Amino acid sequence: MTLTPDGTGLDGLLEAAMSACGTLPSPAETATIHRRLVAEIRLRLPGAERAMARVPVRSRAWYAHQRVIDATRDALLSGGVEPDPSASPLVAAMRVSELGRRLRDLSVYPAGSEDA
Hints:
By secondary structure, this protein is mainly alpha-helical. Helix 1 packs antiparallel against helix 4 and helix 2 packs parallel to helix 4. The longest helix is centred in the middle third of the chain and has 27 residues. The protein starts with 9 loop residues before the first helix and ends in a 10-residue tail after the last helix.
């Protein structure tokens, strides 16, 4: 299991992100989860890009990798900025949940400079 920057496992981070809309975390907790998600996504996104580069262009695998990469980049663009503590807790939780879904998709790719 990959450890996230604060030492908690990836499964715990995903659970926190996915449950954010059910039980709204405090603004401080939301900000912490958000930072950890963005950091982990940025570690894993290059692995997805390397995996896509190794398969034939326009193949099923290429499109599968491309879908994950595009959805992740979109989530980072729309939700990658840390939520303002004065912003709506529900909006912040929805951003965290979306980033969690993108990280779940990326969890099959290696973090950092590892190769799959």
